[in-house]
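User: Hi! I'm working on a homework problem where we have to compare a predicted structure to a textbook description. Could you give me the structure for the chain below?
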Amino acid sequence: MKRAFLKPKEDRRISRGHLWAYRNEFAQLPGLEDGELVDVFGGGGRFIGRGFYQAEGGIAVRILDRHSTEIDSDFLRKRIADALTLRQRFFPGSNVFRWVHGESDYLPGLIADRFDSVVSIQTPCAFYEKNLETLAQIFLDQADVTGVRFASDHVVKTFGDVPDPMEITLDGIRLGFSLEKGQKTGFFLDQRENSRLLDFVASGGRVLDGYCYAGQWSCRALKAGAASVLAVDTSPTAIDWARKNVEANFGGTALGNTCRFECAPIEDVLRRGERYNVVCLDPPALAKTRSQAAKALDLYQAVNRDAMKAVESGGFLITSSCSQPVDVETFLEVLKRAARSAKRRITVLATRGAPPDHPVLLAMPETFYLKCVLLQVK
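Assistant: Happy to help. Predicted structure tokens:
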């Protein structure tokens, strides 16, 4: 096993549980192939952990284990089994959940979502590319899994029966999407519990679903008894899926009568002067790095300001941020500034994160990314 040595004192963060060793933290890196296993040592030659090398980006090594454990199929199988045990505890009887959440499940860089009989894997890491056949077989060996889709920056491969498009059911709502043409693993499961907030505020109201993607929030609003829903996204593909999902759940009469769809920037729609009882905002990550955070904060403030202006007095705004560099306190400060700019009074009714199938590793703030806030606007 090749060895990599950190600079003096650069081992502290990793020794406390962080799983990333950055390129500029190493005093010496041996010649390594992308995805190759390597042992990391700190000051005085102390063993820190075993991980895999990444040839590109700021992260040079992702730590897989604190011991000199054999990283083989048994290792991967145990980690995946442990992750499944946790999901079965929180989602009993369900086969729809995030099965592996990267660093938080001690498989850094690996995301695996289960959509009934299919597991959709996404990773940027060559290590998992090298082990994709093994990974696929481990998942296929699990009960009721009949297909695996693996997607990395360089490889897309399917194993077994992987239908596309797919359909899942969440809280009695049927939601179709495409693995091939959809975003990330195909569907976003991190808002499954937060969308239930609509059950308390949408009944009888006019609802605007911004960044609607496949229509999860729109369908939830209609199920909760919304009088009308306007679903907005800039992607024609997303709008098409949202329309299909509304029709699948509520029939063709809901199209045009109760639920309308518009392919447009949400900013343009909010500025038209129309008023709603509930506005939902679930934008994509506006900041993926700290260097992008300042610009993202301006964007968050602007869109939330316009959303607050569009809410009827006494109505509600459900607004989210999945930008990891923007923490909860900063996001709430942005909302406070947006309210001041919009000349509206706001009350925070709930602050939520991701569900338990998206766990947070406390030693890694990077694993806490989703913020969802329910506000009353007056």
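For your comparison, note the following. The first strand starts at residue 3 and ends at 6. The chain has eleven helices and 20 strands. Good luck with the assignment!
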